[in-house]
Amino acid sequence: MTPGFGPGVLMQRLGTAMPWSPKPTPNAEIIYCAPSLDMDDEAFASASRLERIVEACPSVAEPVYKTQPWYSAPVANSALHSFKRAVKASRAAGPPFRLRSEVVPGTSGDLAVVWANDRKTRDLPADAPVVMFMHTITGDADSTLPLLRAASKRGWRGCVLVRRGHAGPLRGEPTFNVLGCTRDAARQVEAVRAAYPDASFRGLVGVSAGSGLLVSYCGQTGYDAKVDAAVSLCPAYDIETAFKSLGETSATVEGLMVGQLKKTFILPNTQLLRAHDEKALEACLAATTLDGFIAAHAPFALGRNGAGSAEYYKRANPMEHFEGVRVPTLVVNSEDDMVCRPENIRCDLVRQTAGYALVRTARGSHVAFNEGFFGQGCFMSRLSFDFLDAARATAEEDARVEEEVRGVVVPTRTAARGVEARAKKRVEQEARV
């Protein structure tokens, strides 16, 4: 870093106060819908399962996120996160973290599952738990490397569900969706299951835009979702509201995002997209706001000329599908997130919707959450795997209890519903007494 241009100077130039406190700042809270006797059986079962997971996970039950003064401001936190990622990707960090890519059958190479292929992951047994990552709005497998590394360290087999257009030019249809397509996601999840059918547990983690796709996929598939637990990192909740207001609060961030979207999806595919819908292509190139780009790309996302933003948001907005999610889900948000603004965080919905837990922090920025004196750790990653480990342990305990009761081995979800039904019956009996 250039002398005289440290984080404090950077914050002054950006007009952001730098809280030079001698002590780290904690500040985090947990919000979830506790089981209640006035719930129906389904909601009670979901709330009971989530509560048991939270109770089995101290870092979620009593969250503490501590930053250091020199990176506590949102821009500094994000800059440090990017710097760490660049350092780990450099040769100075040692041998590269190996990956292997598998094309999803029948997609002309436009959909892929990219697997961690480091030695520790290769040595995992066939029944090791699998975690799938849904990347950011212009991300890919490389941008998700920190989470893949964390998965490997925690004994999980990690993979990234790479969406159309994120791994290079489109090879097949002139179709791309900046927030992802749930049908594509289902095909990728099924490919993961086929690759490791003996996996003992399957987790799904969505990052930023990927968190919206996670909710839409799990919400549309309900009990048929091929995952056992989920983590949604830095979601924007109602994306229509969030995208339309982004320029009012973060014009610079919005401009950078729009430019990156054009670089990722439009410029490498100009000829293919022009042949399909020249008007939509020109609208994408002319867009200057995120909401404008969303509206312009709707024909490519929905596969219909003339499609607009209203139709797109109806299909892609996770708020249209969140009530259908049937897997225990942890949500992580920060109040100083410059992309997913604090006013968009729906604590009210979390409090009244069974199956969700929200950890809300005062700081953390957007998908950064560095922690430790030197910022070497990542709260977001640590919390995600603590939750997934607790969900896995809870499911295994439920299965053991059910096996003891029935004398046979039963599927994990059936076991969980049985345990929850008995728990509700005990509560009702105690209430009557």
Task: List key phrases describing it.
single chain; 433 residues; alpha/beta; Rossmann fold; 2 domains; nine-stranded mixed beta sheet; 17 helices; 46% helix
Task: Characterise the protein shown here.
There is one protein chain. With 433 residues, this protein is an alpha/beta fold. The protein folds into two domains: 25-238 and 318-391, Rossmann fold; 251-316, no CATH class. 46% of the residues lie in helices and 12% in strands. It is built from 17 helices and eleven strands. The strands form two sheets. A nine-stranded mixed β-sheet has the order 1-9-8-7-6-4-5-3-2, with helices on both faces. The protein has a two-stranded antiparallel sheet with strand order 10-11. Helix 16 packs across helix 17 (412-432). It is globular, with a radius of gyration of 22 Å. The termini are far apart. The relative contact order is 0.15.
Provide a brief overview of the structure:
With 433 residues, the chain is of the alpha/beta class.
Instruction: Write down the overall mean pLDDT.
Output: 88
Q: Name the quaternary structure.
A: single chain
Largest sheet properties: 9 strands, mixed
Task: Return the structural class.
Answer: alpha/beta
- Under CATH, the topology of the largest domain can be stated as Rossmann fold
The CATH homology group name of the largest domain: Alpha/Beta hydrolase fold, catalytic domain
* Count of distinct strands: 11
Total helical segments:
17
End-to-end C-alpha gap = 68 Å
